[in-house]
Amino acid sequence: MHTRTLGPFQVSAIGLGCMSFSMGYGPANDEESARLLHAALDAGYNFLDTASMYGGGHNESLIGATLKQRRQEYVLSSKCGLSKDETGKPVMNGRPEVLKKQCEDSLKRLQTEVIDLYYLHRLDPQVPVEESVGGLADLIHAGKIRSLGLSEISTATLRRAQVEHPVTAVQSEYSLWSRTPEISLLAACAELGVAFIPFSPLGRGFLTGKAKDVTQLTKDDIRCTNARPRFEPEAFAANSKLLQPYAELAKQQGCTLAQLALAWLLAQKNPQGAAALIPIPGTKHIDYMLENAGAGDIELSVSTVAALNELINETTVQGQRYTATLMASMDAERDRLAPTN
Question: Would you name the residues annotated as active-site residues?
Fold first, then answer.
């Protein structure tokens, strides 16, 4: 794979999201996950994304145990500030002392002396972002992390954080069917020199053509348990009608549906014309990981990008990405209400 610039690092144009090894999309097998991690490095991936919340630390422990002898071969990102209570409810805590403690715990699980990119997983509404970023900056000065990032934040929050300390990357959901970052966040990242990392670039599996509606999912699948409206039977059936013309476009390009979705992201340009995005698709299957890597070799024409934009976007898709209550609670979604130019 070709590489792209992520702050002080050169990383593979497509990274590997590791969450599904521990949670989110049904059960996973540690031995198979370990094989996939090694195979990914061998295939050219050198950017791995995890978080302390994924499996309550299991994800970090798996990566640490599996790749401790290959630590110099990849750029490691993890996240702090988000956990689950005893009932499974997400809990945000952005207090500096909490973030520092979580970092120490993550370093032990990851079996490394430093984390290359450390994100605030979610903004704590009770803690000013300046305080959280200040805590992460302390970790940089202490040599515990090399750079800091923010996840699922609004443009206004990014600008406030950038004043406190330079932000290396912003991570948020972005794909053909989730376009919130286009309102203002992508432009702000380009202006400020911040890399943008799209998670769920395959629409939680929908854009691969292999996803199922909620009636066919297991209870431990986040598309079911967290009530993603687009996967409710009626909405899913309506959205699935988009897949036939989408598959025709993939056929014209000689690629798979997943590769087309990733190629579309890789073709996005910031207002200055430079490549700005490094998607991190996740999978538990080696074949899919290798398939995703192939998207880096696909160059889409302007007309193909335009056709994709017209076919799949938030006006042609039925349902929001989250329930209304969850959408209202997310800092990233504030850009819909108050776009920042």
Answer: 54
